[in-house]
């Protein structure tokens, strides 16, 4: 499915998937030691298992089925492996303020290795406005691959009985990111704010949907979203 892609495709895609569905976690063990984890949690289905196995093969980490077969997770909990994998973010930084703040906090915990500091700082790790980026300079050299990973997590291909098919994608807090996706696909409709800090774009325009289909064909989805994309593509084309 990802034939002829450069070896870094999975890494760039993974950053987008982490931005959408992943988390960078620091916890403590009985207030004595710090524990570190990278996690992506998805609905359990063969396509998601296959995708996470691909990530595990290329990047590292283990894939497990949890909660009575309901979810599949990709997890890295060895400090050495985490440090190695975090280097990917040096080359392809995350684009959501949430993941950037989690990454910054984990790196600070690694540096200090101080449970006391962690316990005092964990509640403010990314809840304060100053701790989160209001906007990010987007590096477009990996944006296409990142975007496919992000669509895998947050995109929605809606098929409707009345033939008003649409594509939508949303995100908490980061309007700058939804605006960047809107510009990238040349979406005419405005970015909406349906509730609280959630930002969303949705497009029904056939010419725009063709742009999105072209993108997802060139930069393939590799999990469960590929199934809904293929059905969608057949209807639009």
UniProtKB/TrEMBL annotation:
Q: Keywords in UniProt for this one?
A: Mitochondrion
Under the heading Gene3D superfamilies, the entry gives:
Homing endonucleases
Pfam families documented for this protein: LAGLIDADG_1
Q: Note the superkingdom of the native organism.
A: Eukaryota
Q: Which InterPro entries match?
A: Homing_endonucl (IPR027434), LAGLIDADG_dom (IPR004860), LAGLIDADG_Endonuclease (IPR051289)
GO MF terms held by the record: endonuclease activity
- Please provide, in alphabetical order, the Gene Ontology terms of the cellular component aspect for this entry: mitochondrion
Which stretches are annotated as coiled coil? none
Q: Which residues form the Homing endonuclease LAGLIDADG domain?
A: 14-106, 147-234
Report the protein name in the record. Homing endonuclease LAGLIDADG domain-containing protein
Tell me the organism.
Glomus sp. DAOM 229456
The encoding gene = orf237
